[in-house]
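User: quick one - fold this with iron/sulfur cluster bound?
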Amino acid sequence: MAYVIGATCIGTQDRSCVDVCPVDCITAEPEDEMLFIDPVTCIDCAACVEVCPVEAIHPQAEVPAEWADFTHINRVHFEDAAAARALVRAWTERA
Ligand code: SF4
Ligand code: SF4
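Assistant: Sure. Structure tokens for the protein plus iron/sulfur cluster:
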């Protein structure tokens, strides 16, 4: 399992979670509208959850149903960042 960042990070991006992650698995490129958690590197410590001001971070098994796409989007970011950006944009346009 891993933790997953959801929609409320879009446009917030204050990076509080980056500062507390012990394995540096939360990243984004400058052109991204949100941050992403690498599901391979995340050690499920939950340190990021409490510091997020917009409750964007959940364990994969508890991601709110309306954010289900973000489990996939977080994974895609680490394979193809441009593709993940397009998925985030599409999700925002649908919301
Ligand atoms: S759960 Fe821990 S390891 Fe995973 S992203 Fe959050 S702070 Fe990093
Ligand atoms: S703390 Fe929350 S809003 Fe801030 S960058 Fe991390 S996931 Fe996004």
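One thing worth noting: Residues 5, 9, 12-17, 35, 51-52, 54, 56-57 surround iron/sulfur cluster (ligand 2) (CB under 6 Å).
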